[in-house]
Write a structure and sequence with these properties.
The complex is a heterodimer of chains A (303) and B (332). Chain A is of the alpha/beta class. Chain A has 11 helices and 12 strands. Chain B has 2 domains: 243 residues, TIM Barrel (Alpha-Beta Barrel), CATH 3.20.20.70; 65 residues, no CATH class. In chain B, helix 1 runs parallel beside helix 2 and helix 1 packs parallel to helix 10. Classes of the chains: A alpha/beta (303), B alpha/beta (332).
């Protein structure tokens, strides 16, 4: 059965906000798997690391599988140590987002995260040979490449994951753009990113929304929405559909996806409901359809 | 002391000959397709042109490095493998790769040819670099432009391969391999197609008040007053507004070039093996000027003389320049 997963929180939500969020997810959200851990900024980790064991326990008690995600960028000593510590874990599955993590993990089993650029069958085959059990494809991959990658991964016995909801990660830098917007640098950022639980909006100078800043990460303004494409993704061999946490009612969002996958809600009705739940954010599926990522391509009429 | 090789851009056969004549130790180039990260119209080589280029370079003692540094989307891996086959047949001295599948193919098929890890792989820690060295036999890593010199020195002491750093040219500030900004606005991917803010999607639009908007795929990346020179709409060099910045500001970076001339002696001392000059999209005369100036400076430093840094600084005169992350971590 197709698994619904909840990706790691990309933003700097406070410890309180995270506790409440995961309590709701544990109690109410029909997701099968939850990724935990700080993926974007190593400076944020101390704020919520202490809660991690309790959060894991809470989610597991609710029947969710928990996977720990490693940092996407590893440069400083504290980032190297954090990655090494995570890679040493045996109690939980881990998802690796940087080659430093692959090095530390060796051939022990692991998942390949969306930052690892598993774009093709040759790379997926290589990764499987190094111990990968599951691969999350990059968000910018078009449908035919997803299908070809999924076929290869399935043949090797790997799980295949695609992001179907939430802002797409478009870029990562060494520089913190949140700090920069406030005239600071990464080292004296004072955690100003906490002010923007859904990212800091950038608009063009003729006032069109374009991108979102999340610390060192740049995200899409629009939310990816592959709800209309979910059935085709599954038919093409994708085993896991990933929802990225946004500052919206994520319990309701996951319920919509679950209802569509289980055939309990018609796609049209689900689409309207998802648009409503997503508030002001535009919904897009351009990457999937091989065009500009921000675009929304209408579903072809059923044949 | 490091070899301090000069690695120079060759966007066309003419630029390649120019770089060789101006004193490049090695030139880097790519084919006319999506297999390299400068897949721009009018640039790059046909296999026949590359054959001639290799002959020209090798006769003069210059190495040729072939960039196969994009990420093949599933179903199209053949194109990259064929490009590697062609490069091997023509006798290139190294492949510059990013994708693990492409690297694995070359390592297995052509174990005698050197593999360099492209900046497009963004290996920024000793562990990440060792992963590629130990598993795929990588002999040199091109470091991302996000590290300070003390960090480079530290990495150097912990890895078994050579280091190449950028020294001059475009100042890319996103972690390479992770940038889909162009694909988000234009539908062409930097990672899969080798395209960045493509000229085919650029428009300059004169507004009613006399200002000029530079647009990419219909998005205004920047707007310039009547007195300002309109810049190219590269997404990460544009001006945008944010809630705290209603006036419009360079949210990522100003349109500056990287010029590390002043740091050259220190970088050589830190053990950097090779210095890369960016600019396969640049003109012959640009390549000639930059390569000559850096050749003279590197030779002076290796001979124990003071280098004439002023010539190098003059190369970017009139433009804004930066030492980026290399000089201070305050850049971050």
């Amino acid at each position: 059965m197709t698994q619904l997963t909840l990706g790691p929180i990309a933003y700097h939500w406070s410890a309180d906000a995270r506790r409440d969020f995961y309590a709701c997810i544990a109690d109410e959200a029909p997701v099968d798997e939850v990724y935990l851990g700080e993926v974007i900024c190593s400076k944020r980790a101390p704020f919520h690391e202490a809660d991690l064991p309790a959060t894991i326990e809470r989610l597991e008690r609710a029947g969710k599988r928990v996977i720990l995600s490693t940092l996407a960028e590893v440069m400083l000593n504290r980032e190297r140590r954090a990655t090494e510590d995570m890679a040493a874990m045996e109690a939980h599955e881990i998802e690796i987002n940087n080659a430093a993590g692959l090095y530390a993990r060796g051939k022990r089993p692991h998942r390949i995260g969306p930052f690892m650029n598993a774009y093709n069958e040759a790379t997926i085959t290589w990764m499987a040979g190094q111990g990968a059990t599951h691969v999350c494809l990059p968000a910018e991959m078009p449908a035919p490449a997803i299908a070809a990658a999924a076929r290869a991964a399935r043949a090797l016995g790997l799980g295949v994951e695609v992001q179907v909801y939430g802002r797409a990660s478009l870029a990562v830098s060494a520089r913190c753009y949140h700090a920069r917007a406030h005239g600071r640098t990464k080292d004296n950022c004072q955690f100003v990113c906490e002010e923007d639980p859904d990212g800091m909006p950038l608009r063009t100078r003729d006032d069109r929304p374009i991108l979102r800043v999340n610390g060192i990460q740049t995200l899409s303004e629009s939310y990816i929405d592959l709800l209309p494409e979910a059935a085709r993704l599954v038919a093409d061999g994708v085993t896991h559909l990933q929802l990225m946490p946004q500052a919206v009612d994520m319990v309701a969002v996951t319920q919509v996806f679950r209802d569509v996958l289980d055939g309990r809600m018609p796609t049209g009705e689900a689409g309207s409901r998802l648009a409503m739940l997503s508030g002001d954010a535009g919904l897009s599926n351009g990457f999937y359809h091989g065009t500009a990522g921000y675009r929304r391509i209408a579903a072809a009429a059923p044949t | 002391m490091s070899l301090a090789e000069l690695i120079c851009p060759a966007g066309t056969p003419a630029a390649l000959r120019t770089a060789v004549d101006a004193g490049a130790d090695a030139v880097y180039c790519g084919f006319q397709d999506t297999t390299n990260a400068r897949n721009f119209p009018g640039l790059n080589f046909t296999p026949d042109e590359l054959a001639e280029a290799v002959a020209y370079a090798h006769t003069r003692g210059t190495k040729v490095l072939l960039a196969l540094n994009t990420y093949p989307p599933a179903g199209k891996v053949d194109l990259w493998q064929q490009a590697a086959d062609t490069g091997a047949r023509l006798g290139v001295d190294a492949f510059i790769v990013a994708d693990m599948g492409v690297a694995d193919y070359i390592a297995r098929t052509y174990p005698g040819i050197r593999l360099h890890l492209s900046v497009q792989a963004a290996a920024s820690s000793p562990e990440a670099i060792r992963y590629y060295c130990e598993n795929l036999g990588v002999k040199r890593v091109v470091l991302p432009r996000i590290l300070t010199i003390p960090e480079i020195r530290q990495i150097r002491s912990e890895i078994p391969c050579e280091i190449e750093t950028f020294i001059f040219g475009n100042h890319g500030l996103m972690v390479e391999r992770r940038c889909s900004l162009t694909n988000y606005l234009t539908g062409q991917s930097t990672n899969m197609d080798g395209v960045c803010s493509p000229a085919s999607d650029v428009e300059y639009v004169r507004d009613a008040d006399g200002s000029m908007s530079s647009q990419l795929a219909g998005f205004t990346i920047d707007r310039f007053g009547p007195e300002e020179k309109a810049g190219y709409p590269t997404i990460c060099k544009g001006r945008y507004t944010a809630p705290h910045r209603p006036e419009g500001y360079y949210a990522f970076e100003e349109p500056v070039s990287l010029n590390l001339s002043r740091l050259l002696p220190e970088l050589i001392e830190a053990g950097v093996h090779a210095f890369k000059i960016e600019g396969r999209q640049r003109s012959k005369s640009y390549v000639r000027g930059v390569v000559r100036a850096f050749r003279a400076a590197v030779d002076d430093i290796k001979a124990g003389h003071e280098a004439n840094i002023a010539d190098l600084i003059a190369l970017t005169e009139g433009q804004k320049q930066t030492q980026g992350a290399f000089d201070t971590k305050k850049w971050r």
